[in-house]
Amino acid sequence: MNDLLIQPFQLAWATGALSHGPLIRKTTLLGDLSAIFTDGDATQLFPDRPAYAVDMFDTPGGEGELYVGVTHLYPGKVGDEYFMTRGHFHQRREQGEVYFGLQGEGLLLMQNQQGQAWTEPVFAGSVHIIPGYTAHRLINTGSQTLSALAVWPSTAGHDYTSLPHGFALRVIEKAGKVRIMAVKHG
Ligand SMILES: O=P(O)(O)OC[C@H]1O[C@H](O)[C@H](O)[C@@H](O)[C@@H]1O
Predict the structure, then answer these.
(1) How far is the CA of 4 from the centre of ligand 1 (A)?
(2) Which of 123, 140, 167, 171 is nearest to 51 (CA)?
(3) Distance from the alpha carbon of residue 87 to the mean position of ligand 1, in angstroms
(4) What DSSP element (H or E) covers 82?
(5) Confidence band (pLDDT; 50, 70, 90) for 186?
(6) What is the residue range of 78's domain?
(7) Which CATH number do you get for residue 59?
């Protein structure tokens, strides 16, 4: 083996397929997400349907290390609300993350610790710098899979408990159009 020339991991930019490295895949089912949709009960009609899958390279963690992964968020709605990821703050609040849109159409919803929320459109080629202290969630508003590459500090961790009422914006389809609505309790 020539350890002066190490072959890199690979990403197919058009689809988000990761290869040439050790991979972990985590699939989240609709049935796992009843708490996040307005009509949570409707998720129980198809509890085994995958809502999204996250592939990541199984690389060493630790202070200063980075993880690389791709979220594939499938198209669909629960009632009139588009499929979305659970969303989270980082346990290490100060740590940010970068998303790169790869395929599909959607929104990146962000919310700071003061409760202010905003969105950015996600599409092939979009770049999103998620600041520290900012919760984040992907929403698929299109008819294809929405895939986004993410790079984040391995020590960031996930805090799913600090938004007990959810995000302050919900994204629904109304009369065939994408509507972003402010809500009191998301
Ligand atoms: O953890 P969720 O809110 O379900 O989001 C899905 C994924 O989003 C980002 O890509 C994170 O870096 C992943 O660690 C996370 O698994």
Answers:
(1) 34
(2) 140
(3) 7
(4) strand 81-82
(5) low
(6) 22-182
(7) 2.60.120.10
What is the domain count for the chain?
1
- Phi and psi torsions of 32, nearest 5°: -80, -10
CA distances from 73 to 52, 100, 133 (A): 4, 14, 24
Mutate which of 58, 85, 128 to test ligand 1's pocket (most atoms within 8 Å of Cβ)?
85
The CA-CA-CA angle for residues 48, 51, 54, to 5°, reads: 115
- Looking from the CA of residue 150, the nearest atom of ligand 1 is 10
Residue 131 lies in a domain: yes
Q: In whole angstroms, what separates CA 122 from the centre of its chain? A: 11
Q: Is residue 12 part of a domain?
A: no
In a domain, 9, yes or no: no
For β-strands 23-29 and 117-122, DSSP reports them as unpaired
Using a 6 Å CB cutoff, which residues line ligand 1? 28, 54, 69, 71, 85-88, 97, 150, 152, 158
Whether residue 83 contacts residue 75, with contact meaning beta carbons closer than 8 Å, is answered with: yes
Q: Is the pTM of this model over 0.90?
A: yes
Task: Classify residue 14: in a domain, yes or no.
Answer: no
- Give percent above pLDDT 70 in the chain: 98
What is the interface pTM, i.e. ipTM, of the complex? 0.96
